[in-house]
Amino acid sequence: MNKGLKNCKKDFPLLSRQVNHQPLVYLDNAATTQKPQAVIQRIVDFYQQSNANVHRSVNTLSLQATEQYEQARSKVQHWIKAAKPQEIIFTRGATEAVNFIASTYGADHIQAQDEIVVTVAEHHSNLVPWQQLAKACGAQLKYIKVDAQGHLDLQDAAQKITARTKIVACTQVSNVLGTIFPLKQIAALAHQQGAIVIGDGSQAVPVMAVNVQDLDVDFYVFSGHKMLGPSGIGVLYGKEALLQALTPYQYGGEMINEVDWEDSTFSELPSRLEAGTPNIEGAIGLGAAIDYLDQLSIRAVTQYEQKLMQYLLPQLQALDDVQLLGSEDWTQRTGIVSLNLGNIHPHDVATVLDFQGIEVRAGHHCAQPLMRFFNVTATVRASFYIYNTKEDIDRFVAALKMAKEFFEQ
Ligand code: PMP
User: Fold this and answer.
1) What domains appear along the chain, each with residue ranges and CATH number?
2) What is the pTM of this model?
């Protein structure tokens, strides 16, 4: 049911605070989102009423905790349209999920002379694990380019992905540009050459409807904290047959079947790939975040972000001496903008904005190769989400103008 996004800001207790004696405008959502009271309360309720370890005991509390933990898995499954709940493995976040695949599937399949293909826009989390794997195995790491507006160059992709390619790792949305990448076409190109594809959904799952079966990705990763959920919980989706064949990432409690003096056998999915006590309250909190977004409807979230961008982008384009990275077409992007104001250092811009209670991020955004590609060292990044309003945009644009006047006088 669509509860409507109007006034949802009031559901987020933190957003009513002040920063530097000014009402807060939170525009660092690509780094992490704020949490609605419903998510906070769900975690408190778990600790106050059902806290127990999962999958271990037949006592009532443990059974209730297990039921809630597994319900969260089903919610994630339905949210990204996976075929089965056992295709959802809980991790600490997107970073751990990529490292998981690099050190299991990657280590088992990559040999000298093989190729791993990434895009120049990958977050370090979906780049450095592949870079290190390639180094360790003597494989080659290749980069797919983007064009001047940050659209992925599909012709370049078709050339870079060859019969030697074993793994293609590609984000669905750039965390710097907000540009939406054609992940489905990349998966098709990878499969034509017999490679597998890993999609990074960290910036996509919070803002657009995702269907992993339609994308035909082999693995897909994202973090809970960027979609209203708690930190320390993330998801590794994998096609069942691929997950079945994975060497376990970690060994320990709950992932075994039988342990003898010399050897062990391992349990079924998903527990085979979730060694040790998991982040139970994190998964339950993520489930509550999905419920919250579901009430709003993910289509309404996408449309709302597009409306905000439609309002913001012309105002930014009209500023003097502004370098705006990413697509000029607001239908090709989510609510992330990266810019530079003349020669003013992004940290200086961010500091002036912070004085006015406006929280943005300045820096390389964990995407240094992309910074190099665009020949910049850093940018100011403002990232919008469901609780941001046109008034927030007005204050952001006014503060940018003020920063320009302040540094250029
Ligand atoms: N990929 C992308 C596109 C991201 O934006 C981020 C977080 N900035 C990550 C991966 C890593 O997420 P986490 O730090 O939650 O593991």
Assistant:
1) 8-30+297-407 (3.90.1150.10), 41-294 (3.40.640.10)
2) 0.97
